[in-house]
Design brief:
By secondary structure, the protein is of the alpha/beta class. It folds into 2 domains: 274 residues, Alpha/Beta hydrolase fold, catalytic domain (Rossmann fold); 118 residues, no CATH class. It contains 16 helices and 8 strands. The chain is globular. GO terms for molecular function: protein serine/threonine kinase activity. This is Serine/threonine protein kinase.
């Protein structure tokens, strides 16, 4: 979990962020994923009974965590709170014979060991791949230990950072017998994968055989604007005297009282939504938006701190492990994704890359900026959902025109809600296998 969130985010939100998806779409009436509400699907994910059978337990996977020293110049610059991320950690699961290797890039703010990453690892490992799990460029560990500029969001530079990490991973595991390289990522990680693939087309370090984008944003600015708006949803019962989290905790308390025990997992969340205490659409929307607001706060805080910009943390502030992060957290929460883009990313882009205006930055950070490459890159495919919360008007049309039969649009699933649904998993593996 990101640094500032690890100390301050209510424990309720941690299990609500796990979730992910799949090439030409099946007809809506042939797709049996049961969650028709995109908010519920986004939060609860696939019901356990509908997930693939026979996925390996952790004890049956030959896996280890490793660390890379990529930004040694920051060893003594980072605050004491960053002691755990002076090196970039990643996870690799190894087959016991020569095999293809798939890199997985995490979604917004997530590190290499998040729930969705673990689910994908088990899926691909069972299918016979070596699997490398990489943190998102927007996670505080990647920003601190791997990013040259610690200002994520300019997709071409994020891709260069990821590409350097991938090459360092290969060098650190030179003895691993690899028969070919594959690449995937979910949500923002899907967008990252597209830009890494385009970079590899020039550099040829991996010559990826297949690249799969799972529920990627088409226009990054549209996606973050959609998520920012969810926080402002009007929720019945939320007043000046009762916060949104008071309301959620009260509903959970009544649910657990009826159940007679406390257990937080995907099965519980699914069951909770079927109970009388289940959240309304407005409450679900605000919950999703709040979770992403915390992710935005981590990006705002970490980028400001690492670069000593002084917008959140005064440049002369001394932060130790005992320093309260609450004042900085509250200030960072006032800056959503749009705020981060305008106050940190856009000035950075203008200063370092001769950028111009916001519309130009939006194009350069989105799939539109790779349109010509993606139309011709037959190895790149997209899987998404018609009701994905991060898509905007025209986005599905762009995907259809750009990818053709390399696009699968499932009729429902919200954002990443059907990642582990059996039909989606089969489609993922079929695309990578071709």
């Amino acid at each position: 979990m990101p640094l500032i969130t690890r100390f301050l985010l209510p424990c309720l939100l941690a299990p609500l962020l796990a979730s992910a998806p799949t090439s030409a779409a099946p007809a809506p009436d042939s797709y049996a994923f049961p969650l028709g509400n995109p908010f519920i699907a986004t939060i609860t994910g696939t019901p356990p009974a509908l997930q693939p059978e026979g996925l390996p337990a952790d004890r049956n996977i030959d896996q280890d965590d490793y660390a890379l020293t990529l930004r040694p110049e920051r060893e003594f610059d980072l605050p004491d709170n960053f002691w755990s991320v002076r090196k970039l950690k990643y996870r690799i699961a190894r087959q016991h014979q020569p095999a293809p290797l798939v890199f997985i890039i995490a979604g917004t703010g997530s590190n290499y060991a998040s729930g969705s990453m673990e689910s994908l690892k088990k899926i691909f490992y069972k299918a016979g791949y070596h699997v490398v799990q990489l943190s998102s460029p927007t996670s505080y560990d990647f920003m601190a230990a791997a990013s040259r500029h610690a200002t994520p969001g300019f997709s071409r530079e994020d891709a260069r950072d990821l590409y350097a990490v991938m090459q360092a991973v290969r060098a650190q595991n030179a003895e691993l017998p690899v028969t070919g390289y594959y690449l995937t990522g979910y949500s923002l990680g899907g967008l990252n994968a597209a830009f890494v693939s385009a970079l590899d087309e020039q550099e040829k370090a991996f010559d990826f055989k297949r690249v799969l984008l799972l529920n990627p944003p088409v226009n990054l600015y549209t996606s973050v604007s959609n998520l920012d708006r969810l926080v402002h949803t009007e929720v019945k019962g939320v007043t000046d005297s009762q916060t949104f989290y008071d309301l959620i905790f009260a509903k959970l308390a009544r649910y657990f009282q009826d159940k007679g025990h406390i257990q937080l997992n995907e099965a519980m969340l699914y069951d909770f939504q079927q109970s009388p205490q289940g959240l309304s659409n407005e409450e679900l929307a605000m919950l999703i938006g709040s979770a992403f607001r915390f992710a935005a706060a981590d990006i705002v805080f970490t980028s400001d701190l690492v670069n000593r910009r002084g917008g959140i943390v005064p440049t002369d502030a001394k932060i130790t492990e005992g320093t309260s992060l609450t004042p900085y957290f509250r200030q960072a929460l006032l800056c959503n994704f749009n705020c981060y883009i305008r106050t940190q990313l856009l000035p950075f882009w203008r200063e370092h890359f001769d950028g111009t205006d916001l519309p130009a930055l939006i194009r350069d950070t989105s799939l539109h900026g790779l349109e010509d490459y993606l139309k011709s890159a037959t190895k790149v495919g997209v899987m998404t959902n018609a009701d994905d919360l991060i898509l905007g008007p025209g986005d599905l049309g762009f995907l259809r025109a750009t990818f053709g039969d390399r696009l699968t649009v499932f009729p429902r699933g919200g954002h990443l809600g059907n990642l582990t649904y059996r039909e989606n998993v089969a489609a993922m593996l079929e695309f990578l296998h071709d």
